[in-house]
Write a structure and sequence with these properties.
The chain is of the alpha/beta class. It is built from 14 helices and 18 strands.
């Protein structure tokens, strides 16, 4: 990063990260109450007033570092609200399998150091995780640009990578140029079927004519099943958020079943992708605080977890207030016209309807420090500020609302 005054210019980052991290010299906006400029204290007091009057609040977005989430959860407990993260759809697709039957999961370090055969279900993961392949299957040695070479893969530059779904992008092809790459192209609505067929083939079950997939595709999946049986450490990965909602649990289940079968004779694991805007941290913190994951309603010392009722979309049907928090990206709140909207949000957020209260906040890792969880849930990553903070953090905004609410910080 190059920092000059207020301006920040990323030097090496994926396009999406560069867009989100870049900052201009322009001064940040001030808080607003019904579109009119206000002080931070006035905006916090106005937000507290709306929360006191609400009977069924919904907290959405939850894009914040751990301290910001802790304060938001304090505020939800004080006011009574449901909690859901903007990126929780993929999380819950995976949790459906995990809760029913469990799975054997790998950490990023295990994938890097041990995986010799990787199966990717769905689209190229680099579209959402730009450096996934360079991080997960590195080939360069320590000291070179990029990441250290793996510890336990005998031919790190020649791992077998199979894509079952969409084709690879050109940047991914360049990263994987030295690996043995197989692309088994299937339509988006066929990825779940292909995953189930592959699991059946690993189990030795006959699938001829039963799947509806082309014969050439089934033949390619059969060859992949044999590679998996011969692998020393196979890894299955997918991004549930990019799959059709009804197919993501099927893919997670098929991958987990294949791992169970392979683990009898060799080592295998799943590595589900996710983690945008600290959704993993929001999930972990909810478990610590309430004993339940996201999509839980809290208040009056109780917690009630009903995913079907407390997803953001469902919760807004019964809500009379929406509080939306999004510090990492300028994502506007979901459409809501049943009551006031409080936005604790990125300063560049563009609103379809001006919220009753808007408190612009800084971004963790840009305007202030913080901690977020890595997508494999194993490591809590520290973030350092890149410039002097000119905007409050989500934690500071939520704490100020709590003070005005009469609960203290």
């Amino acid at each position: 990063m190059t920092v000059a005054g207020r301006a920040i210019t990323p030097r090496t980052a994926c396009p999406e990260a560069a867009r989100l991290l870049a900052r201009s010299e322009a001064p940040p906006p001030v808080p607003r109450i019904k579109g009119a400029p206000a002080t931070f204290e006035e905006a916090a007091a106005a937000a507290a007033g709306h929360l006191k009057a609400a009977h069924s609040a919904a907290f959405s977005g939850l894009g914040a570092d751990l301290e910001g989430l802790r304060r938001l959860y304090d505020l939800a407990m004080a006011s009574g609200a449901s909690l859901d993260h903007a990126a929780s759809s993929g999380l819950f697709a995976n949790l459906e399998r995990l809760a029913r039957k469990g799975w054997i999961a790998a950490t990023l370090a295990e994938v890097r150091n041990r995986c010799d055969v990787m199966v990717v279900f769905g689209d190229d993961p680099a579209s959402a995780f730009n450096r996934f392949f360079s991080r997960a299957v590195p080939v360069r040695g320590k000291g070179a640009e990029g990441d250290a070479a793996p510890l336990f893969v005998t031919a790190p530059g020649r791992r077998q990578i199979a894509i079952v779904g969409g084709s690879l992008s050109e940047p991914s092809r360049r990263v994987l140029a030295t690996h043995a790459v197989t692309e088994i192209i299937v339509a988006e609505h066929e990825v779940a079927t292909a995953a189930s067929v592959l699991s059946a083939l690993v189990a030795g079950r006959a699938v001829d004519g039963l799947s509806g997939l082309p014969e050439a595709t089934v033949t390619a999946l059969a060859a992949l099943a044999e590679q998996l049986k011969a692998a020393r450490y196979a890894v299955f990965t997918w991004n549930a958020a990019s799959l059709p909602a009804e197919d993501a649990p099927v893919v997670a289940g098929a991958a987990s079943e294949a791992v169970d079968l392979l683990s009898v004779t060799t080592r295998a694991a799943v590595f589900p992708l996710g983690g945008r805007d600290n959704v993993t941290g929001a999930h972990q913190l909810a478990l610590w605080r309430f004993g339940y994951p996201l999509r839980t309603a809290v208040g009056a010392g109780t917690a009630r977890h009903v995913p079907e009722l407390y997803s953001t979309t469902a919760a807004l049907y019964d809500a009379d207030l929406l509080l939306h928090a999004s510090a990492f990206r300028p994502d506007a709140p979901p459409d809501f016209d049943r009551g006031p909207v409080i936005a604790i949000a990125h300063p560049d957020t563009v609103f379809a309807r001006e919220p009753e209260v808007f408190i612009p906040v800084g971004t963790p890792g840009v305007d202030h420090g913080g901690h977020v969880f890595r997508m494999d849930s194993v490591v809590c990553l520290p973030l350092q500020a890149l410039r002097p903070a000119e905007l409050p953090s989500v934690a500071e905004a939520a704490a100020a609302i709590l003070v005005s609410f009469g609960r203290g910080a």
